[in-house]
Specification:
Elements lengths: L3 H15 L9 H12 L6 E5 L11 E5 L22 E4 L6 H5 L2 H10 L1 E5 L4 E5 L6
Parallel strand pairs: 3-4
Antiparallel strand pairs: 1-2, 2-3, 4-5
Helix pairs in contact: 1-2
Length: 136
């Protein structure tokens, strides 16, 4: 049985070996596959969707939606296009980028303020950035 991480690393290596990859976007599919495989184990299950629409903070590389958000819609259900990802968004950069520097960027700051949670990755390292609750 192949584990999701093994599959992810194999797919990344295969894409890189072609010599045709773009440093960021060529690897979106293996990343989404990994996150979706892991997301099925969460309660509620979470799905990763790549390249979300601009809802006011720019265009995140992906978003995390709970199963109930993506259920079949009836006449009374909200328009799916109006939904924000319940589990935040992600910002992806190439492997040469530093996740701490990505997390400190203005782009991630906008996503954080709007969505509340951002998964930052360079395909090798993953950093989950969230808003700190108010204290006092």
């Amino acid at each position: 049985m192949t584990l999701p991480l093994q599959t992810y690393l194999t797919e990344l290596a295969h894409i890189r070996a072609t010599g045709l990859a773009v440093k960021e976007t060529s690897y979106y599919t293996p990343l989404a596959n990994l996150l979706n495989a892991l997301g099925t184990k969460l309660n509620p299950p979470v799905s990763c969707l790549i390249n979300l629409q601009n809802k006011g903070a720019g265009i995140p590389d992906g978003g995390f939606f709970t199963k109930d958000q993506l259920r079949a819609f009836d006449d009374k259900a909200p328009n799916l296009a109006e939904l924000l990802p319940a589990r935040g968004v992600m910002e992806v950069k190439g492997t040469a980028e530093d996740v701490d520097k990505i997390a400190a960027s203005g782009q991630v700051g906008k996503y954080l303020a709007f969505y509340g949670l951002v998964l930052v990755t360079n395909y090798r390292a993953f950093l989950l950035v969230g808003q700190h609750p108010a204290t006092g």
